[in-house]
Design brief:
Pfam families: DUF968 (PF06147). With about 140 residues, the protein is mainly alpha-helical. It contains 6 helices and 2 strands; from the N terminus they run αββααααα. It is about 35% helix and about 5% strand. The longest helix is centred in the C-terminal third of the chain and has 17 residues. The chain is globular.
Length: about 140
């Protein structure tokens, strides 16, 4: 009988790069352009929609945490109107990302991945957003 040994690299299950290592950001300008054409994740408006990058880490989704001065890859973005993204009193940038998404009852990593898979298909993406809003209203946190 032959024995096998599986060698697991130290970073195999890490949500962050190894100390001192930095993975370059992946840009997807077409996806960001697409995100800006969609309705706001929270209120559904099409006015002044911005691509909000999801910075929080999620090992379940394979999402690494990004530093304060770093944006994550563009695939980790969701549509938010300016009011919900930066300007309103309860905007994501003002209350903090974790608090904002918890208050909305939305998992931004799930949403970002679903929209990434729907890139270019506006009907499918709007259906994902409508379902996300409906679930958040039904089960507010």
């Amino acid at each position: 009988m032959t024995a096998f040994r599986i060698v697991r690299p130290d970073t195999a299950f890490a949500a962050a790069p190894s100390k001192g290592a930095k993975r370059p950001r992946r840009f997807h300008t077409d996806h960001l352009r697409f995100i800006r054409t969609l309705s706001c994740t929270v209120c559904g408006t099409h006015r002044f929609v911005e691509a909000a990058h999801v910075r929080i880490a999620s090992a379940v989704h394979g999402k690494r945490e990004s530093g304060m001065s770093q944006k994550p890859d563009d695939c980790w973005s969701v549509p938010l109107c300016a009011e919900h993204h930066r300007e309103g009193p309860d905007a994501q940038h003002k209350v903090g990302e974790d608090a904002f998404w918890r208050a909305q009852g939305i998992d931004p990593c799930n949403l970002a991945l679903a929209l990434w898979c729907a890139t270019g298909d506006e009907e499918r993406a709007e259906s994902i957003l409508a379902e996300t809003r409906a679930r958040a209203r039904k089960d507010p946190k």
